[in-house]
Amino acid sequence: MAGNGNHTTSLNTYLKVYGALLVLTVLTVWIAQFHFGALNTVIAMFIATIKVLVVMYWFMHLNHDTTLNKVVIGSAFFFVFVFFGFIAIDVFSRHNFSTTELSKPQPVQQQTTEEAPKAE
Q: In the chain, how many domains are there?
């Protein structure tokens, strides 16, 4: 993919990236010990996204890639966030619809057949 030639990355850089990924993994495990309610998944996905970006940037050599490829990958991330946004809207709006209220049989109202007064 990279059209800029052959690029080499030093061992020191790989060790720093490994350390960053290790720290982010420990952070994910540590954060999971706390209860943030509905934000638990959001926080875990945020840390996972950072780890994915680190892997893509260094191990997949996106830092040496063309601008077009960076835009394509960035737009893919944008649409993934839009997708997760719609899912979040669905999940967070479910409290408005209680399953117990929907499963109860609704009483049928009797229609009265009162005659309207006739105009004379």
A: 1
